[in-house]
Here is the input.
Amino acid sequence: MRDIVKLYEEDACFIEYLYNEFGKLMFTVARRFTKERMNLEDVVSTTLMALMNNTQTLQALSYENQKSYIARAVIATSISFLRKCRAKHNKEISIDSLGGQTADTKTGNTEDMILLSSELEMVIRTIMQLPDNERRCLQLRYLQNRNNEEIAAITGLSVNSIPQYIKRARTHLRIMYAVKEGESR
Here is the structure.
């Protein structure tokens, strides 16, 4: 029992060291995703809790690698936090479901139509910022329902590379959209 308490105290001291050393970095990175002070604090504290599970890994890293590891952890926590917030407000938008989302036009719910319109506008602007090959593959797959062979024939890319371009495009889109959503708050 004493060993467990001692390990916990050592981990707590190390996390405190990380916060003292990298706290400013953590808030700076989190601020790229959200501007609200409460959200920033939530992201940083959630990241610190997650880092407690990886203290041995972190202790073995050099200072620069610790810095990079922590920055990536804050980014992952920020994106997860934004997704949860968006899901709470029923605003979750996925590139997979873009074609299936519709506003309630039968009942004439103008508020839903305006919300959907602004969300789609943001997604479209974000898609337009993707690298050319990623954007073209994404558009051909999800807007024109083309298969890998058709996309390859149109773009001149190899058939085997199409899934990679789409995967990268979706990853970039998620990150860029999360950043834009954080900036608009």
